[in-house]
Amino acid sequence: MPAWTVKNAWTPSTIQSYRNYAKTNGPRRAGNLRSTCEDLSIRMVVDFAEQNNLPVFFGNNANSQGLDPAKFNSKAAYLDAVLPSTGASDLLDYNTVVMVKGAQKGNANVSLPLAKPGDLIILYQGGGHVQVVTSVTPGTVNIVQGNFRPSSQRCGRIDRVWNGQNQNDPASRCYIGEIVAQKAYTRSGTPPKWTFTGGRDEFSKEGRLCIWDFDGWNDFVPNYNRAKATTP
């Protein structure tokens, strides 16, 4: 049996439902879930997809042909394969996301006003960090993010090797994930400038406003006709 049966496509209404889900569900994970940044973003879309019989597909260095939930017998088994093997940069390297239409890499003034809940902000050269947009108001883009634990809280290499602990595996006691946090980009000043929580200019560090490649995922829907479909 597959992890879940794919019966539905990512349509404009389904994508809007996912955006609504990100708006309410993202903040609920803050302060509760321990997660790296990419694991948080993947968990959120996988949870929604499983609940709504929708396709997802993740490729990474260890699985260059991609990981399909049809090949796993439960969502838990699927996540056990995807999360330990997928890094933040894999979302770009394996075309799992696309840039939001009209957004520009490193340009917060152009990109952030286009943000919607469910979008992803991917930072740094090669895509080293992922944030999930949860809500937007004029001059503010709220996000949730996972991260790495401080070095002082991590298992040492000898401990991990000796005891077979994988710091990328959420089930491991040595998991490197930090407690999910809520943060924000705000626009202020003269001339106006977008800064991240604490006044940092993060988006200029090759920031990209992205969304999951729903069109690509729809190719896994039985009898799906891309030519007749439209997604935003």
Task: Give an overview of the whole structure.
The structure is a single chain. The chain has 232 residues and is an alpha+beta fold. It has one domain. It contains seven helices and eleven strands. Strands 4-11-5-6-7-9-10 form a seven-stranded antiparallel β-sheet. The protein has a two-stranded antiparallel ribbon with strand order 1-8. The chain is globular.
The coarse silhouette is globular
**Secondary-structure element order, as H and E?**
HEHEEHHEHEEEHEEEEH
Number of domains in the coordinates? 1
Biggest sheet: strands side by side, in what order?
Answer: 4-11-5-6-7-9-10
The helicity comes to: 25-40%
Subunit organisation of the chains: single chain
Low-confidence stretches: none
Radius of gyration: 18 Å
Write the layout of secondary structure elements.
Elements: H1 12-29, E1 34-35, H2 37-51, E2 58-60, E3 63-67, H3 75-85, H4 90-93, E4 97-99, H5 108-111, E5 120-123, E6 129-137, E7 140-145, H6 157-163, E8 178-179, E9 181-188, E10 193-196, E11 208-212, H7 214-217
Antiparallel strand pairs: 1-8, 2-3, 4-11, 5-6, 5-11, 6-7, 7-9, 9-10
